[in-house]
Protein 1
Amino acid sequence: MSRLAICPGSFDPVTYGHLDIIQRGARIFDHVVVAVFNNQGKHPLFSVEERVYLLEESTKDIPNVTVDSCEGLLIDYAKEKNANAILRGLRAVSDFEYEMQITSMNRKLDEHIETFFMMTNNQYSFLSSSIVKEVAKYKANVSDLVPQVVEQELQKKYKLLG
């Protein structure tokens, strides 16, 4: 049986912290589906289609990773894909409390799909998409925080938003 993990998130935009988790997960699981969710509570800078494109470009050299988008409950999406696992990254203790609630609910909805938490590499523990957007908005260098394609798209977005 193939070990398939879903790595969910809003990825607005994808950062090196996200890619750290995706790459390491790809070494553990046979296949990783990076699932872009449209979180209604957030106001994304990039459309779902743009985020999928940026992730596809950023993960194109990882053969066992595919990118998809979805709406609805993560656990329903995981069942639809016949996933064995959900892969989540943790930056700090503050992430754990939130993630624990989601994991507990997912377990209640389907006890056969396990959630795996992976600590982000220390060099990315401070990094979030929100911080990247804030810094990029003021034209600061984000080249060591995001892939080049993301940096270019951030520059275009903020140029258009003026």
Protein 2
Amino acid sequence: MKKNVPVSKIMTKDLVTLTTIDDLVTAEELFKKHKIRHIPVVEGTSILGILSYTDLLRISFADAVDEQEESVDTMVYNMFTISQVMARDVISVSSKTTIKEVAKFLAKKEFHALPVVDDGKLVGIVTTTDLINYLLDLY
């Protein structure tokens, strides 16, 4: 197994992002369109927080959300803003952080995505799915 491989090798670089001006309807549409579970919330190239699909499920009624459904029921979403729902105190890693370090960190924490930030600029995101796919590629 390769050691000291930087997370830049497996992170998602082509990011889908939101701003605090966007609404939760837009967020759910992006989650479904891109089949993703985490979206960084940015201001310019700086990260402000992360919105997860689980965050949306918490404020909506989980049994009313159909992942296959393209349309979105907006009534609950209109009661909240992205700023109110997103995780704010996000921990980030640099693109030089090793995959092993990221794996250890995610294994200990209760979240499943880390923004990758170099010199204050968001350059990617790494998720538990990225780690699993990396391991699968090794076998």
